[in-house]
Amino acid sequence: ARRLAPGSAETRDDDGVMKEYIERNIKSFIHIPVEEIEAYYTNNRGLFPGRDFYEVKDEIEEQLLEAKLDNKLAGHIEDLRKKSFIRIQLIE
Q: How far apart are CA 55 and CA 58, in angstroms?
């Protein structure tokens, strides 16, 4: 069996394929409503001293998007596990 060195072109290609899959099949379906961003800002103003909503809107949206992506990925992986079947064959 061939081992890939960390950082090799093939490793980056695999990472790129995985990122593209996540982007197309999971992340692209996540929408953060502006009301949710505003509510987060209002409830967490202490995290943004001296900065108004429009200065931090994109930052908050990215945080909320990443949190939802993590949840969606966990659910997606669980679904894949439920649908998978692994068979081990011992060859003598």
A: 8
